[in-house]
């Protein structure tokens, strides 16, 4: 995941096979990502950078051995472990999202264990503390933070029911259940994007078709269905004015789609050869637009966005 800290561009990368969370730094001269630091993490599934109040934190979520929060210490120029995350609540983490509401920083961890609970944490002066338990015992696969009509919401997908929506209550300072997204079961991942003033959700499935739906107030209208056998990731991303969608597959090529505004649909744009992709992240490195494609079975690949002038 890319992030900016002290005016420099970095990428945090979970590498369980290397037993670490790797932090890469963008070299503006050589125009490459270079090794910056490593945080020990034997079974990391997610390394979430959070830059809050001019401090850099990294939440290290592991399948085994507990999950931890590290802080970059400028006095010694290294990451220092500052706290553990309650292993009774977080048993099998699957995704992390961080966000700000009314000036306060939060992060939420989706837990995919049947005995676990997706949990919300809040930052105070001394660290991140448990704020709210959400959606217990549903084997959650992904969580997405969305602001729609000025209202903060969380969308949590799980393997046992349709994605559920929680809306922030300013009075209670907590998320309260609001409803579900359609009738889609076994949604692997939920991601959102905006096109003009419209808000859309991308719902990926490992078995069956993935869908793009438009958010219209209290209801969702299906926009497009995409074949997605073996898909663990469906990621919208923007490069300049272009809106793309990368749909990965464990059994075939990754398909990149380009949004066509007049048709309100994605059209096939390009195929990428990535073995078992688990994420796609756009990295805006100054005048270079990159796409990182971490793989479950092979090397992480870096693609560069190229515009070809065909007018001559």
From TrEMBL:
It comes from Agelaius phoeniceus. Keywords: Glycoprotein, Repeat, Signal. It holds the Pfam family EPTP. SUPFAM superfamilies: C-terminal (heme d1) domain of cytochrome cd1-nitrite reductase. One of its GO terms (biological process) is regulation of exocytosis. The gene is Lgi3. InterPro entries: EAR (IPR009039), EPTP (IPR005492), Haem_d1_sf (IPR011048), LGI_related (IPR051295). This is LGI3 protein. Signal peptide: none annotated. One of its GO terms (cellular component) is synaptic vesicle. It comes from the Eukaryota.
